[in-house]
């Protein structure tokens, strides 16, 4: 687990529009402030990922994500909350104010309340959700070590937060909250 000082540095970097890489349940993630359009666009450019695909937000607790979502039924809410905190990402209808740079061409937003101690601590230090997309250029394998992150992003634009990955061997499972159907 990184020190409180490291966590505060990472949160400060997010507040200033920076991009960080950090361990998650199965791979290193790239993150930024989801409400800072320029940061999100820089992150997408680093990954060479089109904005149409949308992004995942992670949080330490559901209350951090709730303003971003429009959960229409108690059944959907219960389905989602039964898996959190944990390594399950859900596509949930987005609140009408959520920017297109997060949802892409979709009506839903991909979200997760993480149980990973470093990822959760980053969200708590930042005070809100952060973007979480695999730390790799599109088409290449997701980074599973800090060294891999450094090799992918050699220009120094990404601050690496140290820590161990969780027990998954790849990205988290993703489900559609409306249907319960697994998407990955």
Automatic annotation (TrEMBL):
What is any Pfam family matched here?
Answer: Sua5_yciO_yrdC
What GO terms in the biological process aspect are recorded for it?
Answer: regulation of translational fidelity; tRNA threonylcarbamoyladenosine modification
EC number, UniProt record: 2.7.7.87
Q: What is its main location?
A: cytoplasm
Which reactions are catalysed by this chain? Answer: L-threonine + hydrogencarbonate + ATP = L-threonylcarbamoyladenylate + diphosphate + H2O
State the superkingdom: Bacteria
- Transferase: present as a keyword of the record? yes
Gene Ontology molecular-function annotations: ATP binding; double-stranded RNA binding; L-threonylcarbamoyladenylate synthase; tRNA binding
InterPro entries from the UniProt entry: DHBP_synth_RibB-like_a/b_dom, Sua5-like_dom, TC-AMP_synthase, TC-AMP_synthase_SUA5
Q: Where would you find this protein in the cell?
A: Cytoplasm
Its family?
Belongs to the SUA5 family. TsaC subfamily.
The job of this chain, per UniProt, is described as: Required for the formation of a threonylcarbamoyl group on adenosine at position 37 (t(6)A37) in tRNAs that read codons beginning with adenine. Catalyzes the conversion of L-threonine, HCO(3)(-)/CO(2) and ATP to give threonylcarbamoyl-AMP (TC-AMP) as the acyladenylate intermediate, with the release of diphosphate.
Which PANTHER family does the record cross-reference, listed alphabetically?
SUA5, THREONYLCARBAMOYL-AMP SYNTHASE
Tell me what this protein is called. Threonylcarbamoyl-AMP synthase
């Amino acid at each position: 687990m990184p020190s409180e000082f490291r966590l505060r540095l990472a949160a400060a970097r997010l507040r200033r529009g920076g991009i960080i890489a950090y361990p998650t349940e199965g791979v290193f993630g790239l993150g930024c402030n989801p409400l800072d359009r320029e940061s999100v666009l820089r992150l997408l450019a680093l990954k060479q990922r089109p904005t149409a695909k949308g992004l995942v937000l992670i949080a330490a607790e559901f209350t951090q994500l709730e303003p971003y979502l429009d959960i229409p039924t108690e059944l959907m809410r219960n389905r989602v909350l039964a898996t959190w905190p944990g390594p399950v990402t859900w596509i949930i209808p987005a609140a009408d104010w959520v920017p297109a740079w997060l949802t892409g061409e979709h009506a839903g937003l991909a979200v997760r309340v993480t149980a990973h101690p470093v990822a959760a601590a980053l969200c708590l230090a930042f005070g809100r959700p952060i973007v979480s997309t695999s730390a790799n250029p599109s088409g290449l394998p997701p980074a599973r070590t800090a060294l891999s992150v450094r090799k992918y992003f050699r220009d120094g634009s990404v601050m690496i937060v140290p820590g161990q990955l969780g027990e998954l061997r790849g990205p988290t499972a993703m489900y559609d909250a409306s249907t319960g159907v697994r998407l990955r």
